[in-house]
Amino acid sequence: MQSFKAALQTTWTTANPQQKRLLGLLALLIGLCLFWVWHYFQTHISTDNAYVNANSIQIATQVSGPILSLQVDNNQVVKAGDPLFEIDPEPFQVAIEEAVAQVLQDKAQYKNTLVNLERIQNLVTKKFLSPEEKDNAITSVDVASAHLKLAEAKLKQAELALRYTKVFAPTDGLINHLSLRPGTTVQAQVPLFVLISHQQYWVDANFKETELNNIRPQQKAKITLDMYPDQTFTGVVDSISASTGTAFSLLPPQNATGNWVKVTQRIPVKVLISVPNPHFPLRVGATANVTIYTPKSSYAHP
């Protein structure tokens, strides 16, 4: 260090005025660069322990039956409302026909009890029948009405089941883990494949617990993916997890042991990707690098 200072002093002493100006400008430039580097690391926090994520919808049917036709393939992009597959509708059409027949029968029975009630009321008025006969007729009307309502409810249920035989995409997204084939019998409420929603993508950035002090929601972020190293995505901090990634795992670490070694934990930070680029499709689980801008105004605790 002493020799370096001596060399600088000798250079400065022997330099002419023009060289001194150049040396001064060089020293200023170096100082500015060093200040910029220092300021950057004071206001930016980065991690490469980050992964792309999105909402995954488990696609299942509301009714059981064999697959009649399949309109999508694995890894296919779909729009909301696009048909996915259809279950054989014939058993459900038969159920509707049976329900219609029952409704017609119960409706006829209900009308008959109304006519009978009116006839009995006239006879009771003329004292040809006792009041108890009128009460019995009213009860018959109520029972017939209840049967008709049950039959109409079963018809609506049958019609709803028929509509459920056609399954549509609930949102824009990408089909994944699809192995269905026509003829496969599926069960109601059992997940069949996954639809990865395109509505929102984010990155789960796992920062060290010692780095969270300056991170706040709504801070700007820069994201790069290993699969697209030359493409930069903008993001914003959405939230900070309330636990470490291992706190609620199947076998969480037990630190109350004699061989305990303190290890800095990582806390997931959810960073929303502001504007996904359709030319660079995102993949769930892809590794990423995240840099969060933490201005000095965020240093103070709220």
Structure description:
This protein is an alpha+beta fold and 302 residues long. Among the domains are: 45-54 and 198-247 and 260-298, Efflux pump adaptor protein, beta barrel domain (Elongation Factor Tu (Ef-tu), domain 3); 89-164, Helix hairpin bin (Helix Hairpins). Helices cover 36% and strands 29% of the residues. The protein has helices spanning 2-14, 17-43, 90-125, 131-163, and strands spanning 44-59, 65-70, 77-78, 83-87, 166-168, 173-176, 185-186, 193-208, 220-225, 228-240, 266-273, 287-293. It has a six-stranded antiparallel barrel with strand order 1-8-11-10-9-12. α3 runs antiparallel to α4 (131-163). The radius of gyration is 37 Å and the shape is elongated.
Write a compact overview of the structure shown.
With 302 residues, the chain is α+β, with helices and mostly antiparallel strands. Helices cover 36% and strands 29% of the residues.
Tags for this model:
4-stranded antiparallel β-sheet, 4 helices, Helix Hairpins, alpha+beta, Elongation Factor Tu (Ef-tu), domain 3, 12 strands, disordered C terminus, 6-stranded antiparallel beta barrel
